[in-house]
Here is the input.
Amino acid sequence: MNETIEEQLRRVLAQSATAEVPDALPIPPLRQVDELTVRRRRRLVPVISGIAAAAIITLIATAALLLHTNQPDESVSAARAVTPQLVGLSLVEAEADITAAGLTVGTLTSVESAGTPKGQVIAQQPSGGTVSVKGDLVDLQVSAEATTANASALITVPDLRASTATEATAQLTKLYLVIKVVIVPSTGGKKGHVVRQDPEPNAKVSVGTVVTVTVTDPNFTDVPQGLVGMTYDQAVATLKSVKLTAIPALVDSTQPVNTVVGVKVAVGTSVVQGSPIALQISNNQLFIVPKLANLTSAEAIAKLASLGWTGSASSLKLYTTPTSDRMLVGKIAGESHTVITPKGGGGTVQMPGQAPPPGTPVRKSTSFTIIVYVMK
Amino acid sequence: MVAIEAGDDLEALYQTSYHSLLRLAVLLTGDRGAAEDAVQDAFVGFWRRIDGLDDPAAARAYLRAAVVNNSRSVLRRRRTAARHMHELAPGTQPGADESIVMQVRDRELRLAVANLPRRQREVVVLRYWSELSLAEVAETLGVSVGTVKSSASRALDRLQLSLGGSR
Here is the structure.
C-alpha cells in the first residue's frame, strides 16, 4: 500500500461524499426565494440631521466592530458588510444594492440639485467602501426637481394592500418613502402579500416617513382541515400538497387500523413549510364493549369475538346469583347483584352484571367479569 | 448580457450543481441537514445578487464560497460541530481482498480530518475533494495564497501524524 496521504485523502473524501450524497439522492425543490426586503433593525430616530446621523452611525458601527473583534474570527466576517458605491444610481437600484449588501436603507432626504435627474442618488452616508456591521443604516440624498418633494412637502400614502412586498417597495421608493416590512406567519391573506399598512392609505406624510407593511410569509402554510378520519396515506398526501410532512404515532383506538384519529397541531395553525405534523394513527386495538345481559356465556364469548375480542372462556370470570325465574337460568344478569367473593369464607360483594360495562372502549385483550343466573 | 437570469436558468443551475454543493457542505459540516440548509441559503443569497453575476463560472465560484460560509454558520446554529465527520458514512464497503488495515486507516483519516481546525479542514476539503488550485482555495476562503499554503501544509502534517507516520 504505497498510497500517499494526498491520494488517501482524495479517495476517503470522495467515498464519504458520495456515500452521504449519492447521485440518486432526490433534489428537493429550490426553497421559495424570499423576495421580501426584511428590515432587521428598527430605525432609532425617525429624522436625524445629516451630520448627527453620520456621527451616530459611525459610532455604532465602530462599537459593534470592536465588540465583534473579541469574538472568533468567523463571526466577525459574518457580521461585516461593505457599503456599496451608490452615488449616481437610481433610488431603486441603490435600495437593491444596500439590501444585497446586508445593510438597511436609512433616511432618505430629497434635495434640489441642478442638472441631476430626479430620483438619482447624489450623496450617501456612510460612503462607498466603508466596512459596517450588517443591518446598519445607509442614508441617502436623492435629487428632486426644484418644485417637487422637499423635506416639508406632504406625500399621499398609496394603498399597498394586496401588493407584494417588492411592488410595495417600488411604489414607496418612487414617492421618497421608506418601507419597513414586517412578516407574519399567516393571517389568511394571500401569501407574500401586504395585509396591513401603517400609515393607512391616503394619509399625508412627509418625505422619508417609514411606512410599515405587514406581509404574510410565503414560507408559512396553514395546517389543513379534515385530517382526522382520513387514512394515513390520504393524510400524508394532503399534508404533502401543502408542503408539510407527517410523523405518525400509533395510538389505541376503536377506529380501523391506519385511520388518523388525532392531529397534534390545532387546525388552521400556520407552520413553516416542511414542518413535521404529528398524526395519531389508530392501531385498532380497542373495541366498544357490547351489552351482554340476557346472553349465555357462550353467546357472550361469540359476540365479543365477532367484535375483535382476543380473549377466550378463560378470560371470562364467572360469578353466579340465584333466581327462581326458570327463563333466566344460564343467562348473564342485566343489573348488579350481591355475589359471594371468590376466595370463599362466606364474604359477599355487590357487582354489576357485566364488567367492563357496555359502551366502554377497552383493549381487545381485556378480561370480562359476568354474573350468570342459576336456579335457586 | 446577463447569462444567469431569474427563473429557469437559476433552476437549471440549481439542478446541475445541487449534489456537488451538498457534498461539499456535508464534508465541511458532517451533518446532512445542516448541509442542506447551507446549500439552500447559498441559492437564496445568490438570487439576491443575480444581476451582478453574468458568468456561469463566477456563479459557481460564488455559490461554492457561499456554501463554505454558510456551513460555518449553520454548524454554529445547529451546534453539531462536535459530531463531525466521524459520523459520516464510511463509503463503499471494501471488497474481500482489501485489507482491514486499509479500512482502519481510512477511518482514522476521516476522524483526523474531522478534528482539524476549521480553516485547515476547509482547505483540505477544497483542495483534495473540490480539486481547486491554491489560488482558487484562497479566493473561496477570502484569504491569501500564502495562508492556504501554510494551512494545507500544517493540515497534512497533522493528518500524517495522527496516522502514525511522518511526511
Q: What stands out?
A: The radius of gyration of chain B is 17 Å. Chain B touches chain A through 51 residues (CB under 8 Å). The first helix of chain B runs from residue 8 to 29.
